[in-house]
């Protein structure tokens, strides 16, 4: 492995083992909302951060932006620059959240199967833009898990507006509509996702989609695993927009709670 964090994983787990029992007991208590209610948190969570793929999406710079923040939040983060980390059964069974930045990459059958199995069993998955929304173009089960696949960004980098559609969900609560100067992702989207924010195309670059409303931020489940996606974040500088950054951070926290908080039921997982 190229990355020292991943190669030192067993040492870190050994050092942390002494406190594991207390952590499990505490989070088992939190899993029962009748005992105590709390907000999603990364504190005490184990995160696998996998980065690579097309360099145009700043995978290393985004890693350097978010990983220190996650550690400051109290997460134990294992950083890897290879999809082979998905083949480590011991590691995969231990993590609460997987974050992936792998635009336009290839994944083997064994790597994909282990990733799908892990999320289906209750580990969360979170990502943004092409990192998970345009990662493995020929892998339809993977796309089923994510809830959408990028197909176009008419006009390239342009000015567009993001509209908050759910003002009650913790991921978007308190946030207002905001503007981006980036790629306005056009995606094929699973209708069974809970859409939190959208964008509307004006037809300037593709007249036949004038007025089309497209999901920008959503959450969903794949089996027991929480999946969070935002199409924002073409380059690391996009996260200088406060709303884009806050949405991503909240999405990480929400997805990391699959094993500890109740399964959310959405009566009308649709958008207008």
Count of strand segments:
11
What's the main sheet like? 9 strands, mixed
Radius of gyration: 18 Å
Strand order of the largest sheet: 2-1-3-4-11-10-9-6-7
- CATH topology-level name of the domain at 4-150 and 218-255: Rossmann fold
Sequence stretches where pLDDT stays below 50 over 5 or more residues: 6-36
Topology:
Blueprint: H1 4-7, H2 9-16, H3 20-30, E1 46-53, H4 59-73, E2 76-80, H5 89-94, E3 97-103, H6 109-120, E4 124-128, H7 129-133, H8 140-146, E5 148-152, E6 157-164, E7 178-183, E8 186-189, E9 194-200, E10 213-222, E11 225-230, H9 242-255
Parallel strand pairs: 1-2, 1-3, 3-4, 4-11
Antiparallel strand pairs: 5-8, 6-7, 6-9, 9-10, 10-11
Describe what this molecule looks like in 3D:
- The protein has a domain of 185 residues: 3-Layer(aba) Sandwich (Rossmann fold).
- By secondary structure, it is an alpha/beta fold.
- The radius of gyration is 18 Å and the shape is globular.
- The termini are far apart.
- Helices cover 30% and strands 26% of the residues.
Task: Provide key terms for this protein.
alpha/beta
Task: Briefly say what this structure is.
With 272 residues, the protein is of the alpha/beta class.
